[in-house]
Amino acid sequence: MRVCLDVSAAAQARGGIGRYAARLAEALLRLPGIELSLLYHGRGGTALPPGLAGLPPRRVRLGSKPWRATLAAASLLRLPLDRVVGPCDLFHATDHVLPPLRHTPSVFTVHDLAFLAHPETHLRSNRTYLAAMMPRYVATATVVIADSEATRRDVLARYQVAPDKVRVVPLGVEPTFAPVPPPEARALVAARYGLTAPYLLFVGTLEPRKNLRGLVAAYRALLQRHDDAPDLAVAGAEGWRYDDLYRLVQQEGLSARVRFLGRVADADLPALYSAAAAFAYPSLYEGFGLPPLEALACGTPVVCSDRSSLPEVVGDAALLVDPTDAAALARALARLLDDEALRRLLRARGLARAAQFTWARTAAETLAAYEEARRRWDARQRTLRGR
Predict the structure, then answer these.
(1) What dihedral angle (degrees, nearest 10) is formed by the CA atoms of 21, 24, 28, 29?
(2) Structural domain of residue 271, as residue ranges?
(3) Fewest CB within a 10 Å sphere: which of 198, 286, 374, 387?
């Protein structure tokens, strides 16, 4: 099967969706019967990750906003863009944008519906675009993939779509996410990030949905009970509406205790997770949630939100809390710091839980979605010819 895969988010190194596109492409290459080509958009120095070098690329020389505007206009005017995608048996949209296609079946991945669940955490421009186009993309795709059961429930509740059209395909975690020996992990994070003592860790884009203000409030409460608690390290690129987070840290007098590391290289993440005393992820909403899964794979005790997809990802391998309850989050962190037996238990459970999520499994289940899309498309074409 000739598959064209949108890897724009990977080319632009955009967080979890970028990781999804890159790792899925690499895993699909290992499956027999797949002939893969890549589509991506971007200006200037946008380029494919090294792991995808050598695959046939089709680059659209437009930035995100012009590309989205082009697709929106083409969809509303019913102008097919098959020529942009190129000759293939199926197109897979991985980045919440789907070109209108007349001659090609499509699979559309819905990562989350945060713009509906928590509109206050999105920029107005992004919210307006998704509100207008997401229903159209879900309706026109031949098959829809959801990252989790929670996201599938959201899709079925929000849009008029047949339940059997929406399939759940969980994401995976790379084998490189594994416990790093303590001396090696501590040496790396000290040398590259100046973290010379135990620390609490958050990894993710700095944006309102991640509830970092809530994490700072919980950390402040933790320090009131444990003034010797580790520092808080926040790793991740700046997304949007993050200035008030920096101001909050300053106003609370926590500038010396809360360390902003910026974007961390993927190669450094296993050591960063492994050297952490605990990992905190109080996100208000996630379509899947890769960082807590990566932390589990590295043997790090995890406290995370009890909302959306996160309980089904971490299972019984993490402490779950209401992300809007800073006191509860502080108590959960204190439990992990005080209870060595609990840390050992969660470490063992976390390693076992993370082992269930592999990119090979993601690729195999994605291929099954491709085959289902081809069957649906062929049946539809036979019906049209029979009229």
Answers:
(1) 70
(2) 182-354
(3) 387
Helix H or strand E encompassing 91 = strand 90-93
What tokens does 305 get?
């939100």
**Digit-coded pLDDT (tens) for 3-50:** 999 999 999 888 889 999 999 999 999 999 999 999 999 886 678 888
pTM of the model: 0.94
Q: For residue 223, give both structure tokens.
A: 């320090």
Q: Which comes out higher in pLDDT, residue 200 or 12?
A: 200
Q: Concatenate the DSSP letters of all residues of 2-36 into one string.
A: EEEEE-HHHHTT-HHHHHHHHHHHHHHTTSTT-EE
Are 246 and 154 members of one domain? no
CA distance 44 to 98: 23
Show the DSSP H helices in the chain as ranges. Answer: 8-11, 15-28, 64-76, 82-85, 114-117, 124-140, 149-158, 182-193, 212-225, 243-251, 269-274, 290-297, 310-314, 326-338, 340-354, 359-386
CA nearest neighbour of 6 among 139, 28, 74, 286: 28
205 and 161 inside one domain: no
Kindly report, residue by residue over 155-166, the tens digit of the pLDDT: 999 999 999 999
> Which residues on adjacent β-strands are paired with residue 106?
91
Are residues 128 and 79 part of one domain?
A: yes
**Up-side HSE of residue 370: CA atoms within 13 Å toward CB?**
23
The dihedral over CA atoms of 335, 341, 344, 350, expressed in degrees to the nearest 10, equals: -50
Instruction: Output the DSSP codes for 131-171.
Output: HHHHHHHHHHSSEEEESSHHHHHHHHHHS---GGGEEE---
Structure tokens at 71: 């697709």
35 and 104 belong to one structural domain: yes
Q: What letter does residue 206 receive in the DSSP assignment?
A: B
Question: Lowest-pLDDT range, 10-19, 86-95, 170-179, 362-371?
Answer: 10-19
